[in-house]
Amino acid sequence: MKRMLLICALALLLVPCLAQADIAEIMSYQGVLRDGSGNPVPDGSYDVTFRIYDVETAGTALWTETQTLTATGGIINAHLGSVTDLTTLGFDVPYWLGISVEGGAEELVPRTAFTTVPYAAHAGFADTCLEGDGDWQYDGDNIYHDVGNVGIGTVTPAVKLDVAAGDARCARFENDSGGNRFTVMAVNNGGNTGGFFSGIEPAWYPAVPTAVYGKAGLGSRGAHFASEDNDALFAYSADARAVWGCSATDYAGYFDGGGLGVYIDDQLETNALKMSPGAASGHVLTSDASGVGTWQPGGGGSDGDWTIAGSDMYSGVSGRVGIGTTLPTAKLEVHNVTADEALEVKHGGATASRVVNIERTSLPNSLNDLLQLKVLPDSPADCQFIEAERGGVPVFQVMGDGRVVGAGGAYFTDDLEVHNGQLLVDYHGDHVAEISTAYVAGGAHVLHVECPDVSATSDGIAVYGKYEQATDYGIGGKFEGGYMGLWGVSDGSGGTLEHIGVRARATGSSGYNYGILASASYGIAYAGYFMGNVNVDGTLTADSKNFKIDHPLDPANKYLLHNCVESDEMTNVYSGNVTLDAGGEARVELPDWFEALNGDFRYQLTCVGAFAPVYVAEKISGNRFGIAGGESGMVISWQVTGIRHDPYSLENRLAVEQDKPPQEVGKYRHPELYGMPETAGVSFREERGVAAEGGLTERRPPEAFDPNDGE
Q: 144, 90 in Cβ contact below 8 A?
């Protein structure tokens, strides 16, 4: 049958009823059936299936019934629930109605959402709750119940409000009051039970009436109080103890103050005192200037461990000495919080080999320190671990971030290794850094810089040189070698990106810019020598161009050279031989790209072996041309010249005559041919970077190492 459309004309309605208890579980529905063109369907009977869902799309139907309805003018009326009972639906969640016609597998879309009217059936039950059974009373906005118990989560409430929640919280109270309106207020007007009871049953009750009382089971606290930034517990009593603690088997109170312990702003009265740290027989409790008490030996601090022998004083026991600290952790520990040095050592003897000697007399373990210097993690980078002065002037410093600064530079006669850091050299002179070696064996590296990180996915730089004093001045790097000045290698294996041995670039606002400027002289000299294909993405300019090959007749001893054909146009030359047919004619086939590349054609024909008035009978068209006027079997040698007209050539036509740019006026490509000096040459450049020509700074020989030096 034709596709049906259902147009809802009336919302879902409940059938009226006389009493709340007799609400009918039947809903009226009215709609219009239209065909695929939007016209009402013919009058007659149609099977319509209704389904109720709790989701707007997809899902499983919660209720289904099919009715045979009569359409008049396309209008249908149905009483939902007259076939299948609706009482299985609570109408306490949103529902949607799906409709299909004549047993169709697809429902009409979208589904129709139930409006508030069908939920009036559920409201009938709510009315019963509002009417109640006479135990609950209303007073304005208040509702109260003055007899019996109320149970939540239990059918046998044992107290006025009995809440049972199993393995979950029973109740949660919250308010936003910032004043004295408590979240929960509990009052006990008499007896010995608390305002709160928490914990397990059965339980004993305190003998004294208690405002808050809690008792926990085994392994749990009776009460827990916490605060982010104020007192976790405040106790006050006008005429009795503010806090009273009692324990049958453990401490009556335990306090952990993050290193501060307990503060008592009044008198402390106790029957006994036990302070474990530092306790020893005969020790007495003493106090430092800040009031901190510790156990100290009795009898004025002398216990016989120290011996005085003339000007010397020593201790033969295994204890520690603390100055400024009562708990030394080393043989000698000095603490100071004032502006004075914690330790100062001076020596005035001119013949003394050293002022301080630090020596380890046993073999250290791996990574053991002979001397360790520490600062706090947030210390500034320019603080100093070590400073060496000469006449009050710093000459050597070890900074807080690990940098080593030397006023006289650094001189190394052996390996220098920089691991996971930077080597910074700052010097105002001709040579900032010098590295040399006398090792001449093959493969010697004076400077070896390597980045072995094979996982990197960006272009790091092993060596970076930049020297820019001012615009137009400065050389980033200069390399000299007896065999090769610079060797660039890119031997990356695998991968899909390009590999470049040497890349050069030069950019400037005006004047000459050369990506590579090279020259060669003496002997067999090549300013550039390429072993492989050469691609020029631009114009190639030369005084002359030729090819050079091994001589075919004497390849071991001679070369054969030819000049290239020159022209004032971008000319292409093509030639060949063709044999005329029986009619003395021929057609020459050219490549399919011929006319796309060339235009303005010129022709030459030459008879081979005889003469005939041959001529070009058909100009080039469709990448071919015709020849006629000859004899059958005659061979014709032909030549065609074309002028390039591809997009690049059209945009880059050669200007045959050009004025020299201002910086080349008065200069010559070959000045010697015109009787001019070498300085008049276009390619003449004065040598720059003279400072880089100098040799190494003269080294002072290192002093001989004396193993007994300083002993």
A: no
What does the block give as tokens for 41?
Answer: 């369907």
Confirm whether pTM is higher than 0.70: no
For residue 211, the Cα-to-chain-centroid distance in whole angstroms is 57
Q: Report the SS3 class of residue 144.
A: strand
19: helix, strand or coil: coil
Sign of the four-CA dihedral 152, 153, 154, 155: positive
Non-local (6+) Cβ contacts of 368 within 8 A are none
Neighbouring C-beta atoms of residue 666, cutoff 10 Å: 9
- Which pLDDT value is given to residue 190? 59
CA distance 522 to 269: 107
- The C-alpha atoms of residue 354 and residue 345 are separated, in whole angstroms, by 11
How does residue 201 score in pLDDT terms, banded at 50, 70 and 90? low
Is the preceding omega at residue 202 within 30 degrees of 0, hence cis? yes
Q: How far is CA 6 from the centre of its chain?
A: 56
**Closest to 567 in 3D by CA, of 545, 549, 547:** 545
* Amino acid (1-letter code) at residue 380: P
How are strands ordered across the β-sheet holding 586-589? Answer: 586-589, 624-628, 615-618
Strands 624-628 and 615-618: antiparallel
61, 53 in Cβ contact below 8 A?
yes
Q: CA-to-CA distance for 379 and 390, rounded, in angstroms? A: 26
Q: What's the mean pLDDT in 590-614?
A: 94
Compute the distance between CA of residue 657 and CA of residue 677 in angstroms, rounded to an integer.
Answer: 25
CA-CA-CA-CA torsion sign (355, 360, 364, 369): negative
Cα 256 to its chain centre, rounded Å, is 42
DSSP bridge partners of 638: 576, 605
Between residues 296 and 190, the one the model is more confident about: 296
Cα–Cα distance, 198 to 482 (Å, whole number): 95
Phi-psi region of 341 (alpha: psi -120 to 50; beta: other; left: phi over 0): beta
Q: Which of 210-219, 456-465, 648-657, 702-711 has the lowest mean pLDDT?
A: 702-711
**Residue 674: strand, helix, or coil:** helix
Quick: pLDDT tens for 245-296: 777 777 777 777 666 667 777 777 787 777 777 777 767 777 787 777 787 7
Are 668 and 682 spatial neighbours (Cβ–Cβ below 8 Å)?
Answer: yes
Q: How far apart are CA 322 and CA 233, in angstroms?
A: 39
Element (H, E) at 636: strand 635-644
Residue with tokens 């106090």: 287
